[in-house]
UniProtKB/TrEMBL annotation:
Top-level taxon of the source organism: Bacteria
Transmembrane segments: none
WD-type repeats, residues: 541-573, 582-623, 623-657, 664-698, 706-740, 747-788, 788-829, 865-897, 906-941, 990-1022
GO biological process: protein polyubiquitination
InterPro entries on file: Apc4-like_WD40_dom, P-loop_NTPase, WD40/YVTN_repeat-like_dom_sf, WD40_PAC1, WD40_repeat_CS, WD40_repeat_dom_sf, WD40_rpt, WSB_SOCS-box_domain
Species the sequence originates in: Microcystis aeruginosa NIES-2520
Alphabetical UniProt keywords: Repeat, Ubl conjugation pathway, WD repeat
Protein name as it appears in the record: Anaphase-promoting complex subunit 4-like WD40 domain-containing protein
Cited Pfam families: AAA_35 (PF14516), ANAPC4_WD40 (PF12894), WD40 (PF00400)
Stretches assigned to the Anaphase-promoting complex subunit 4-like WD40 domain: 838-910
Length: 1108
């Protein structure tokens, strides 16, 4: 028997087992047409064999071809050596020996940048000495560049350059590139602002089908036990995977086993020992090589095994899973590639790998085996904290998140149980006390004396026991407070409830006259305070059985519609109750939109239709003309038309009667989204062909937008004024253009695809939703304002309410979330100074460009104006709040009216001034410089007069302030606060720590001093410098500290203008205020969740359920 199947490695062009596929024809046609091509797929799919075959055919046609295998270049070369290696292999591949002296040629150009050297080689050597009509350069194993220490972005730029040169130099029409490897285009280019792949053609290399492998029967038919259905069974087991197909055919030649027995004995059973040449281990290694991502990949694969298939969302994780070869895309779903893989990489294998990754693998496995009921398997204390630390920065499976959350909830409950145990013990002791008292009364005086001594001893023991119990509970609560703050980063509402329970437990073991410094734990209070100051998640909409792709808020803000993979649209009221469900689509619903009058809803579905409904759930109109899934639907501003987009590469304009008014053709791939301009005269479309197009209503393209590095746009929207266009892209960015096609801003910060982008109603912000599990709000210059985290999977949609105060997001975790927005008026990174007026109701924020923004106590913008100063370092209110003083790098002081008129300017220093403050009468200003000098100025209408100056420190004076009696000045520097009289005499020095002190303040009665350091530690001293309290807030940068006007609170001001309050007296009452704030925030969330409402003891009886 001479017939041999080839198992592993490249097949020769004339090998009898080479199977021609559709990719052969596509690649050959594209290359003949001069297209740059790339064939990216998992290993052992036949990429190299395809390259060998196509190379031979082109050479037979008289073309010049050469291949460069990246693995042959070495991974230890420097950049210059790598490019010289490419040149050398092209020199040898095109058989140019004897035509030039390559060593001399390279030596003469060694001073050129390496990429220019390769460019000259192409132009001066290849285009001159290669005489074929076309020149083809094949780059194999291109993914190997990912392991190099240097960037090869310029290499891809050169490929693009060769393509673009065709317009100026016809010789470049001759040269064409083709890349082969295991990668995605996004993987290969480090600098995401450039790529070559939008000019290229992707060649899809699929597995074999039964008709294609018919020639393989030639080798099998000579077997004595040959059966005609062998190839059909081979295809069943391999799914057409080329390597496995060849291997099983070869094994059939070598054995007399039937196919099922052969596959089980020679492939599946003890697969590690049979895996030669290596194939299955390559798949496993690809899945597990990155420990930070392996958990997420295994989690996705686990879902596929359990459900049979999951929807393909083109996320990077799914892309990585597909590149492993383990799964394949079929009918827009991911399925296991074949039964062999399913048998080997089964659920037991997945669990085993997860066990090796997780530090808590045994615990989570036992918890899962108990059907999630055995709470003894959950983590507590240090083990829980270690697990939470380990989870940071990792993409975990849903099971991991559920396990960690359940562990945190148990930790909280155990604290409550411990507290209840203490209460019962106290009751027992009280009863014992009563009995002892009764017996004492019966005895004699001597006995009374004796028993009294015993009783006193008993009381002492009891008190000691209680102290121990309180201390133990305090330690537990302290630990819980820290863990709930970590939980807040990804579960806002859940961490709020947990922190409230902890504070309630603390409240039950302290007395109303106990000071904060004597509390057994403070972290739950600090955590609850910080959560309430920062929380944005207001409610969760739960009820869908699949991904939520789209949300829409009614114009009156009273209803929310969600569209889901489960084929339904649900309508919710603002309290979070499902008031209507629309059923009628026969597939996933990808888009939903309220009409401008709020009386109708439009939907778009996988079933190739769009529909219009009334609010009672009646289908009014169906639009059936698309040939593929309908991805989006939008109403025109007047509500008389809708526009739909589809996978069939078209958009359609319709009237409300179901008639097609216009078909928009021009995109080369599916269109994911469309948006009307505010005047209703233009439509913008976003497509997976990497372009955004703007059309008039007649179907004419007005403008086409795109960038070289962007292969897909998922979303597009006009700004409210109609002058800008925002697009969301697969390159992890969003972008804004003007209507002339000029790129105005790029929004970078997401770690995965950006799935949607929408403007705020005032046009001053945009919101993006990403597959990285977050939504972000941005200013119009590309600055990130805030990030909304809480979804556990990809976020597909995020929209503003009409008043801009709320956002609703939808995710593949099957929930929609309602978020309450806080101050959005400034980009934190640009803010340089913040101040609050003496009444505590106005905040002034200065940014690096000299812009002043005034906010009210709710964070609403009052006014904004530009000053004539750049790099403002300090800003201060006049006591009457009508004037504002600023200073900064240029050493000048400017005084402005609150309306934005400059009233006065003078030069106070030749060096930068970092701080300034008015006195309580507004008649004087003090300034602190970068060299530690304090200057005391008297203000007049004409020229400020310098009254006194002295050196207060050898470094920057970060803040200074007058005392309320105007007789003292406090200065803040690195690690210290100093108190001075007005003549510059040092009265007192208070040391803090090694950090700069960014803010200092006197209490209104002058009896207390507060300060905040750069690390977020706030401290309070009495007038004699004795430390009375200390606490820390988790804030990136704080810019100031002050007392409330009544002196009862310390107010810390963060860079974004947020205020964080801390009580000075009656801490016990303050705990109740915090709990009341929490209950008020949770009101909507708890109304229709009775089990959580009853479990949250601080809110028991305060929130009434929904009534119908």
């Amino acid at each position: 028997m001479n017939y041999q199947y080839r198992v592993g490695g490249s097949l020769a062009y004339n090998h009898p087992t080479y199977i021609e596929r559709n990719a052969d024809r596509e690649l050959l046609t594209a290359l003949k047409n001069g297209q740059f091509c790339y064939v990216f797929n998992c290993r052992q799919m036949g990429k190299s064999s395809l390259r060998v075959r196509v190379t031979h055919i082109l050479q037979q046609l008289g073309m010049d071809c050469a291949s460069v295998d990246i693995t042959s270049l070495g991974s230890n070369d420097n950049l210059s050596q790598w490019y010289n290696g490419v040149i050398t292999r092209l020199f040898l591949g095109f058989n140019l020996t004897g035509k030039i002296n390559l060593k001399s040629w390279l030596r003469e150009r060694e001073d050129l940048p390496p990429v220019q050297r390769l460019g000259q080689f192409i132009e001066e050597i290849l285009l001159v000495y290669c005489r074929g009509e076309k020149i083809y350069i094949f780059i194999d194993e291109i993914d190997k560049i990912l392991s190099l220490q240097f960037s090869l972005d310029d290499f891809f730029s050169l490929i693009r350059y060769c393509y673009n040169q065709r317009a100026e130099n016809a010789q470049y029409e001759r040269i064409t590139f083709a890349l082969f490897g295991v990668a995605t285009p996004a993987d290969l280019i480090r600098e995401k602002t450039q790529t070559s792949f939008n000019i290229g053609q992707a060649i899809e290399l699929t597995g074999f089908n039964l008709a294609e492998i018919a020639p393989l029967a030639a080798g099998l038919s000579s077997q004595s036990n040959y059966q005609p259905d062998w190839l059909e069974k081979v295809i069943f087991w391999t799914g057409g995977q080329p390597f496995l197909t060849q291997k099983i055919c070869q094994l059939l030649l070598e054995t007399n086993l039937d196919i099922e027995t052969l596959i089980k004995e020679r492939i599946i059973n003890n697969w590690e020992s049979h895996d030669e040449p290596v194939h299955l281990r390559t798949i496993a290694d690809r899945l597990l090589r990155n420990q930070d991502k392996a958990g997420r990949l295994l989690g996705i694969y686990q879902q596929i095994l359990e459900k049979g298939a999951i929807l393909c969302d083109d996320s990077p994780e799914q892309g990585e899973l597909r590149l492993s070869g383990l799964v394949v895309k079929k009918d827009n779903q991911l399925v296991v590639y074949n039964p062999i893989y399913r048998e080997i990489f089964n659920l037991n294998w997945v669990e085993k790998q997860l066990e090796q990754l997780r530090p808590y693998s045994e615990a989570i496995a036992a918890w899962q085996q108990s059907n999630y009921t055995d709470e003894s398997r959950l983590l507590r204390g240090k083990a829980l904290n270690n697990a939470l630390d380990w989870s940071q920065g990792k993409s975990l499976s849903n099971l991991d998140y559920q396990f960690l959350t359940a562990s945190q909830n148990l930790d909280k409950r155990e604290a409550e149980i411990s507290l209840e145990t203490q209460r019962q013990a106290n009751k027992i002791l009280a009863i014992a006390h009563q009995k002892a008292t009764k017996r004492i009364k019966i005895g004699s005086v001597i006995l009374i004396a004796s028993l009294l001594g015993s009783f006193l001893a008993f009381i002492q023991v009891k008190q000691a026991w209680q102290q121990v119990e309180t201390a133990q509970l305090g330690i537990q609560l302290q630990r819980q407070g820290d863990s709930y703050w970590q939980q807040f980063q990804f579960e806002q509402l859940e961490s709020l409830m947990a922190a409230m329970q902890a504070v309630n437990s603390l409240k039950n073991i302290v007395t109303d006259d106990q000071t904060l410094g004597k509390y057994p734990a403070t972290s739950p209070i600090i955590t609850l305070q910080q959560i309430l100051d920062r929380i944005q998640e207001k409610n969760q909409l739960q009820g869908h059985q699949g991904t939520i792709y789209s949300v829409s808020i009614s114009p009156d803000r009273q209803k929310i519609a969600t569209a889901s993979q489960d084929g339904t649209v649900k309508i919710w009221n603002q309290k979070g109750e499902n008031i209507q469900t629309l059923t009628g689509h026969q597939g996933a619903v990808y888009s939903v939109s309220f009409s401008p009058d709020g009386q109708k809803i439009a939907t778009a579905s996988e079933d190739k239709t769009a529909k219009i409904w009334n609010l009672q759930g009646q289908n009014l109109v169906t639009y059936p003309d698309h040939q593929e899934s309908v991805y989006s639907v939008s109403f025109s501003p007047d509500g008389q038309k809708i526009v739909t987009t589809s996978r069939d590469k078209t958009a359609r304009l319709w009237n409300l009667s179901g008639e097609t008014l216009q078909v928009f053709k021009g995109h080369k791939r599916s269109i994911d989204a469309a948006s009307f301009s505010p005047d209703g005269q233009k439509i913008a479309t976003a497509s997976r062909d990497g372009t955004i197009k703007i059309w008039d209503l007649s179907g004419k393209i007005i403008l086409s937008l795109g960038q070289d590095n962007i292969e897909t746009f998922y979303s597009v929207n006009f700004s409210p004024d109609g002058q800008k266009i925002a697009g969301a892209a697969a390159d992890k960015t969003a972008k804004i253009w003007d209507l002339q096609g000029n790129l105005r801003a790029t929004f970078q910060g997401h770690q995965d695809f950006v799935n949607s982008v929408n403007f705020s109603p005032d046009g001053k912000f945009i919101i993006t939703a990403s597959s990285d599990g977050s939504a972000k709000i941005w200013g119009m210059q590309g600055e990130e304002i805030t990030t909304l985290r809480g979804h556990q999977e990809s976020v597909f949609t995020a929209v503003f309410s009409q008043d801009g105060k709320q956002v609703v997001t939808g995710s593949s975790d099957e929930t929609a979330k309602i978020w309450q927005l806080n101050n959005l008026n400034q980009a934190q990174a640009d803010n340089t100074s913040v101040s609050i007026n003496s009444q505590g109701n106005i905040i002034a924020i200065a940014n690096k460009d000299g812009q002043i923004t005034l906010l009210d106590s709710q964070g609403k913008k009052i006014r904004e104006f530009a000053t004539k100063m750049r790099s403002i370092y300090s800003i201060a209110f006049h006591p009457d709040s009508n004037q504002i003083a600023i200073t900064g790098r240029n050493g000048k002081v400017q005084i402005w009216s609150q309306k934005g008129t400059m009233l006065q300017e003078f030069t106070a220093s030749q060096v930068p001034i970092y701080s300034l403050a008015f006195n309580g009468e507004g008649t004087a200003i003090i300034t602190g410089t970068s060299e530690g000098k304090v200057q005391y100025w008297h203000l007049s209408n004409y020229r400020p007069q310098l009254i006194n100056s002295w050196t207060a420190d050898d470094n920057i004076i970060y803040d200074l302030v007058f005392s309320p009696d105007l007789q003292k000045i406090a200065t803040a520097a690195r690690g210290k606060i100093k108190i001075w009289d007005l003549q510059g005499n040092l009265l007192k020095e208070i040391k803090t720590d090694s950090f700069p002190v960014y803010g200092v303040s006197f209490s209104p009665d002058g009896e207390k001093i507060a300060a905040i350091s750069r690390d977020g530690t706030a401290r309070r001293w009495d007038r004699d410098g004795n430390l009375r309290s200390e606490f820390k807030i988790e804030e990136d940068i704080v810019y100031g500290i002050t007392f409330s006007p009544d002196g009862q609170e310390i107010v810390i001001i963060a860079r974004d203008g947020q205020k964080h309050r801390w009580p000075l007296e009656t801490e016990y009452n303050y705990l109740q205020k915090l709990l009341d704030r929490g209950c008020l925030w949770l009101e909507d969330y708890l109304r229709n969740r009775p089990e959580k409402r009853e479990a949250l003891s601080p809110c028991t009886g305060k929130i009434k359920p929904f009534t119908f």
